[in-house]
């Protein structure tokens, strides 16, 4: 194996690590590279031979296109190419994109398919826009999918393309590949040239001067770069003068020797440079290096110091040994810190860096470091521009380190490495106890949440769903803000005009490191939300307790009418539940990055249990208060009943009868109070302090029986004195009663001689009053006789009152029946005829007539009163014919026309109807035209019958028409010819 082959393979293995810096290529405008034939007037290629001839004229053959696409063993010490041509394809020539050609595929074209070296016609079937490769199939094997293959764009020609532009495209790619291969050979040669110790290194004087200004580590880096630079200079001179070697190997020295430097110092040397060329090399070093002046070195040193200060800054506030904070506080602190740092980056850092460079470069004056240059071409060729470019790269590197370091610390602080969080399943439910957390992290949690109870469910003081997006936004806004620092060119070179959008480049949001950190942060917090929601869901079971109203709860218990023992059980349950809350609900718990404060909700639940317990105790106290008050009320009732001031002898004997049962009642009340006292012991068992009023009431109830017994003795002594007083009163009442009986007997004897029928109303009122007085005297006589028995005295005779009542009853019936009948007759005649009930009239007439008939036998010995009875009987019988007339007038078939005919027959000018009273009809002589009235009523009934017959006939005809119509509709529906 040759040396060049080994070098080539070593280069291929490390090709991904190193980047070859190419010389700038002058590209044509897009319109000059357009290769689509837009008009039919321009020439088109119709055959493969024509395309090969055109490419041959421009010096392009198939081997130059296909070489490098296969894995061939190419020697680096030969002129053979070894790089694939498609790598150097200029895409600005491209016009056939996947979007444009997709709708028209498959399409015919010409392709160069290895291993053949001739163009042939193929069928393009598919396009891959990512790498600009096309899938083609030979025309003869278009149906065979296995014969198709992917080829680069440079091996495919469409007939619609400009052939000249296609040839230029291939030529440009071949030229770019030749330059790249020459560059690779040059760098490979530089890598394998070793130097003797110090041959290409800085001399002793330069070494000592540099060591005074930098550390050994920095000097070793400078020495390595210095040696690599002079090695490249030496190789370039060697290639120019070694004509023998250059004839066999066409290696060109690159336009610029400041390419990518190799990091490793070569260990062996195959060529050497004569020492006589050192002066020339030093002169070239002074022209090329940036450290040819001490002020430039000092300026870069200060720039590096400012960059180191920037690297030590922090974009975020990450408290280490402080308690967890809320999300709002964390956001506020970090946005303030980010704004403060970004303000320094945009202002202070740029100003200080510009000040350092201006202070050192302005002392150099005109020349290669002239910062007062006014010509743009001169500035582009000066070392000032290269120095500013070096400063820009250093600042961007510091800015990148700042962003990566800050985001790394940010991620390390927020993602506290809880393995259980990363492995949690989306269907996770919190089945363990509420105190021990299976998601305890290694480091303290950064955030604090407070658990609250809402009307529907449990919630946190900060919505956990906002954490992933907000934490990501804080980091992304800091990264975006790091791109807002301007470069130092506009502020340092003030004699030239620069664009306003010159900013330092930092880490991009789509940088792989940022994407990984963002994904890690978001995924961790999305996972952390699963146990957080599951933990909050466990507290939904306490929602009913949290929202229960103590008053409503007590009202429900009262409505159930529970006994004291059952209330005691309820109180014990509430106490056990409160103790259970104290042992099962924690003050706080840690779940991944969250420290959850459960104490407010825990205290609220415990307080609610305490409120329910106190409410039950108070309800029991109130219940016992009512029971005790009921017992005391009965005691008070006994005392009040005994201490009532007697108003009669009956009252005294009633109180004495009541007092005989008091000892038994006191025994029952004492038993009740003993039961209430047992219930009071329930309250004492719960260490509940009774109010002072309840405490006094309880002991008052216990001492009431003795008070009642003492009061009974006093009442008995009082009753003895009251009995003597009532006995004296009884004698006076007897005398008064006898006088009243005599007066009433004398008055009735005079009153029964009255028989004037014109004063029937006045006599009936007086009769009723006398009858009431007589009844009251009889009742009062009974009361006096009862008292006589209580005083052990003989009874009073009441037979004369009974005789007087029997004799006066017939006289009372006469005048009351007569007065009542006259009032009824007045209402029958005066009220509207429509409102008169004929049945009531008939009953009233019959009742009055029968009762008056019964009185005829009682007054047979009294002619004047007998004449009064007969007068009223005649009056009742005289009204009876009016009943028949009223029945005819209230016939329901009479209309206004019939009443008009009646008025005409009776020669009446009044408007007759059932809305007027019967007295109107009597005044107009209806009694004299009963036959005419009866004829009108018969006519009205006949007319009514005729109307009913017509209505029935019309209804029958309507039903027949409807039946006919239904039959017609049914026949129409059954017809098939419509």
From TrEMBL:
<dbReference type="GO" id="GO:0045505">
    <property type="term" value="F:dynein intermediate chain binding"/>
</dbReference>
<dbReference type="InterPro" id="IPR026983">
    <property type="entry name" value="DHC"/>
</dbReference>
<dbReference type="GO" id="GO:0030286">
    <property type="term" value="C:dynein complex"/>
</dbReference>
<dbReference type="GO" id="GO:0051959">
    <property type="term" value="F:dynein light intermediate chain binding"/>
</dbReference>
<dbReference type="GO" id="GO:0007018">
    <property type="term" value="P:microtubule-based movement"/>
</dbReference>
<protein>
    <recommendedName>
        <fullName>Dynein heavy chain linker domain-containing protein</fullName>
    </recommendedName>
</protein>
<dbReference type="Pfam" id="PF08393">
    <property type="entry name" value="DHC_N2"/>
</dbReference>
<keyword id="KW-0175">Coiled coil</keyword>
<feature type="coiled-coil region">
    <location>
        <begin position="930"/>
        <end position="977"/>
    </location>
</feature>
<feature type="domain" description="Dynein heavy chain linker">
    <location>
        <begin position="803"/>
        <end position="947"/>
    </location>
</feature>
<dbReference type="InterPro" id="IPR013602">
    <property type="entry name" value="Dynein_heavy_linker"/>
</dbReference>
């Amino acid at each position: 194996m040759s040396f060049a082959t080994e070098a080539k393979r070593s280069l291929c293995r490390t090709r991904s690590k190193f980047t070859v810096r190419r010389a700038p290529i002058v590209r044509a405008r897009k319109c000059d590279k357009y290769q689509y034939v837009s008009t039919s007037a321009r020439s088109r290629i119709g055959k493969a031979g024509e395309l090969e001839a055109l490419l041959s004229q421009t010096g392009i053959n198939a081997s130059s296109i296909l070489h490098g696409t296969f894995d061939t063993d190419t020697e680096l010490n030969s002129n053979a190419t070894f790089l694939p041509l498609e790598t150097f394809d200029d895409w600005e020539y491209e016009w056939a994109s996947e979007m444009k050609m997709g709708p028209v595929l498959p399409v015919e074209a010409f392709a160069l398919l290895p291993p053949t070296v001739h163009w042939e016609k193929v069928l393009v079937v598919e396009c891959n826009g990512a790498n600009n490769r096309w899938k083609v199939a030979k025309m003869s094997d278009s149906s065979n999918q296995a014969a198709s293959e992917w080829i680069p764009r440079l091996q495919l020609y469409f007939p619609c393309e400009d052939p000249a532009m296609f040839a230029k495209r291939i030529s440009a790619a071949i030229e770019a590949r030749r330059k790249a291969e020459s560059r690779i050979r040059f760098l490979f040669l530089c890598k394998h040239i070793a130097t003797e110790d110090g041959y290409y290194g800085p001399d002793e004087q330069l070494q000592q001067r540099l060591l005074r200004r930098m550390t050994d580590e920095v000097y070793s880096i400078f020495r390595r770069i210095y040696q690599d630079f002079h090695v490249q200079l030496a190789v370039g001179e060697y290639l120019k003068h070694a004509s023998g070697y250059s004839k066999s190997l066409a290696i060109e020295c690159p336009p610029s020797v400041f390419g990518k430097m190799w990091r490793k110092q070569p260990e062996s040397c195959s060529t050497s440079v004569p020492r006589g060329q050192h002066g020339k090399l030093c002169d070239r070093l002074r022209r090329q290096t940036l450290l040819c002046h001490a002020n430039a070195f000092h300026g870069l040193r200060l720039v590096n110091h400012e960059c180191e200060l920037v690297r030590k800054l922090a974009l975020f506030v990450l408290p280490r040994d402080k308690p967890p904070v809320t999300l709002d506080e964390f956001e506020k602190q970090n946005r303030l810190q980010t704004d403060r740092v970004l303000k320094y980056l945009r202002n202070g850092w740029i100003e200080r860096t510009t000040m350092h460079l201006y202070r050192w470069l302005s002392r150099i004056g005109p020349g290669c470091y002239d910062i007062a240059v006014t010509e743009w071409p001169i500035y582009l060729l000066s070392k000032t521009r290269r120095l500013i470019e070096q400063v820009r790269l250093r600042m961007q590197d510091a800015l990148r380190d700042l962003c990566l370091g800050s985001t790394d610390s940010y991620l390390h602080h927020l993602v506290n490495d809880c393995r259980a969080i990363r492995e949690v399943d989306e269907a996770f439910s919190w089945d363990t106890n509420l105190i021990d957390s299976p998601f305890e992290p290694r480091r303290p949690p950064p955030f604090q949440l407070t658990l609250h109870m809402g009307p529907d469910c449990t919630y946190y003081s900060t919505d956990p769903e906002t954490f992933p997006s907000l934490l990501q936004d804080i980091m992304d806004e800091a990264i975006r803000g790091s791109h807002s620092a301007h470069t130092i060119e506009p502020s340092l070179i003030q004699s030239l005009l620069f664009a306003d959008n010159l900013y330092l480049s930092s880490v991009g949001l789509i940088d792989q490191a940022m994407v990984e950190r963002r994904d890690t942060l978001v995924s961790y917090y999305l996972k952390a939300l699963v146990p957080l929601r599951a933990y909050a869901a466990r507290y939904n079971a306490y929602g009913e307790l949290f929202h229960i109203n103590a008053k409503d709860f007590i009202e429900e218990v009262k409505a159930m009418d529970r006994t004291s023992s059952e209330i005691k059980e309820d109180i014990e349950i509430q106490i056990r539940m409160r103790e259970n809350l104290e042992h099962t609900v924690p003050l706080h718990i840690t779940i991944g990055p969250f420290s959850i404060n459960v104490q407010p909700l825990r205290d609220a639940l415990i307080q609610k249990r305490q409120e329910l317990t106190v409410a039950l105790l108070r309800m029991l106290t109130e219940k016992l208060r009512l029971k005790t008050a009921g017992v005391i009320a009965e005691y008070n009732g006994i005392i009040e009943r005994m201490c009532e001031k007697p108003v009669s002898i009956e009252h005294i004997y009633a109180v004495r009868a009541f007092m005989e049962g008091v000892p038994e009642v006191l025994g029952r009340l004492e038993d009740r109070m003993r039961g209430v006292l047992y219930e009071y012991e329930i309250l004492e068992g719960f260490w509940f302090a009774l109010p002072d009023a309840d405490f006094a009431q309880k002991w008052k109830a216990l001492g009431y029986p003795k008070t009642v017994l003492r009061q009974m003795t006093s009442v008995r002594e009082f009753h003895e004195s009251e009995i003597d007083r009532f006995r004296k009163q009884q004698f006076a009442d007897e005398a008064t009663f006898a006088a009243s009986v005599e007066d009433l007997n004398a008055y009735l004897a005079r009153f029964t001689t009255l028989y004037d029928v014109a004063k029937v109303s006045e006599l009936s009122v007086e009769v009723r009053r006398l009858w009431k007085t007589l009844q009251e005297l009889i009742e009062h006589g009974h009361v006096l006789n009862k008292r006589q028995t209580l005083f052990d005295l003989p009874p009073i005779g009441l037979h004369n009152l009974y005789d007087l009542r029997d004799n006066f009853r017939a006289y009372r019936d006469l005048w009351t029946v007569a007065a009542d009948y006259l009032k009824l007759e007045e209402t029958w005649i005066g009220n509207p005829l429509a409102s008169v009930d004929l049945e009531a009239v008939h009953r009233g007439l019959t009742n009055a007539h029968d009762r008056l008939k019964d009185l005829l036998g009682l007054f047979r010995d009294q002619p004047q009163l007998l004449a009064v009875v007969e007068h009223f009987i005649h009056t009742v019988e005289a009204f009876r014919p009016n009943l028949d007339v009223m029945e005819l007038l209230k016939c329901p078939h009479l209309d206004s026309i019939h009443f008009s005919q009646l008025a005409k027959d009776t020669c009446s000018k009044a408007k007759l109807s059932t809305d007027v009273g019967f007295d109107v009809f009597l005044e107009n002589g209806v009694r004299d035209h009963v036959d005419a009235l009866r004829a009108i009523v018969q006519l009205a009934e006949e007319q009514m019958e005729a109307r009913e017959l017509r209505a029935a006939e019309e209804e029958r005809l309507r039903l027949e028409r409807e039946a006919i119509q239904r039959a017609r509709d049914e026949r129409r529906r059954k017809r098939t010819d419509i």
